[in-house]
Amino acid sequence: MTCAFTVGAVVVNFGPLQNLKICLDAIKGQETAFSRVVVIDNSADKQNQILPFTLPINWRLVSLGYNAGFAAANNIAVEKLADCQWVALVNPDAYLQPDWLTKMVFAARLHPEFSFFAPRLLMASDPSKIDGAGDAYHMSGMVWRSGHGGQASEIGDKEVFSPCAAAALYRRDAFLEAGGFDADFFCFVEDVDLGFRLRLLGHRCLRVADAIACHEGAVSTGGRHSAFSVYHGHRNMVWTYVKNMPGFLFWLFLPLHIFLNLFTIFWFSIRGQGKIIVRAKVDALCGLSTMWRKRKRIQSRRRLSIRSLFKVLDTRLLPNRRTL
To answer: What pLDDT is attached to residue 66?
Structure first.
């Protein structure tokens, strides 16, 4: 089945090729075919630069020969999809169900007021549980995947803050208007940062509950609590807040943001990761001047009202991460 919308898929690989093969097989098996697929090899390992399986004729493999980071590599791939109206980002450890693209395109046609879409992610190790149903953004700057660890039943379509880039659909012109991912982030929280910038430009995100992908999660980064994940996630959490929280909300929520950062230093220190969390926060502070310059441009282009943004933030003092 072909798609009236031109949809390109992007897969950025850095990690085990066995996961990539499962991912690509799921993309090939879509009942609605992708117009084009770009696979970015983000590895410096020359053995990974020639995939041990054949790609279809409308697919393109780009071997960078170095690790550009998840953010920059996706930007490179999106630039190469100039003939596509929409781009789907798919992690190599995310496995789309056969009707994933059909469901996402149907939602895009039905809801033209939305520019980007989040599917339902299930845990690959236990598909009865939710890996994420869109990303949430708390007024303190804390981010998480909505519903993570909860039961996969009884979940519906809903406007969410942003999608997890493990599997997401963006209108390409909106992606480019927002500037794509921030390459300084390298990886982690870059999807929420992009989602925040899209929202400030007036774009909206819809969760499509019946578009499903199974997600392994953090396959190439050593797990959610690895030093690599903790460093990038908690450095980038600060940068996302500084760049994007607009107007008086920045100052209103700043004490909460500072408390959150102090608490994370305490929490990870008692877990034996004190050095890495302190380095993350120190490097976040060292990058503030750069992020503040970016903030000025982002805020000068803001079209979203403070009231409208407030409605999509999680403003509960003690949020429940499993809330859908």
So the answer is: 87
Q: What is the pLDDT of residue 262?
A: 97
For 93, phi then psi, to 5°, come to -105, 20
Could you report the per-residue pLDDT of 115-136, keeping only the tens digit for each?
999 999 999 999 999 999 999 9
**Residue 95's CB: how many other CB atoms inside 10 A?**
24
Low-confidence residues of the chain: pLDDT under 70 = 1-4, 44-53, 218-224
**One-letter amino acid for residue 121 of the chain:** L
Give the tokens for residue 292: 């503040």
pLDDT tens readout for residues 194-239:
999 999 999 999 999 999 999 997 655 555 678 999 999 999 999 9
Q: Which of 165, 166, 230 is nearest to 191 (CA)?
A: 165
**Euclidean distance between CA atoms 269 and 265, whole angstroms:** 6
Contact of 253 with 141, CB cutoff 8 Å:
yes
Neighbours of 20 (CB within 10 A): 22
Q: How far apart are alpha carbons 150 and 130 in whole angstroms?
A: 5
3-state secondary structure the chain: CCCCCCEEEEEEECCCHHHHHHHHHHHHCCCCCCCEEEEEECCCCHHHCCCCCCCCCCEEEEECCCCCCHHHHHHHHHHCCCCCCEEEEECCCEEECCCHHHHHHHHHHHCCCCCEEEEEEEECCEEEEEEECCEEEECCCCEEECCCCCECCCCCCEEECECCCCEEEEEHHHHHHCCCCCHHHCCCCHHHHHHHHHHHCCCCEEEEEEEEEEECCCCCCCCCCCHHHHHHHHHHHHHHHHHHCCHHHHHHHHHHHHHHHHHHHHHHHHCCCHHHHHHHHHHHHHCHHHHHHHHHHHHHCCCCCHHHHHHHCECCCCCCCCCC
* Bridge-based pairing state of the strands 7-13 and 86-90: parallel
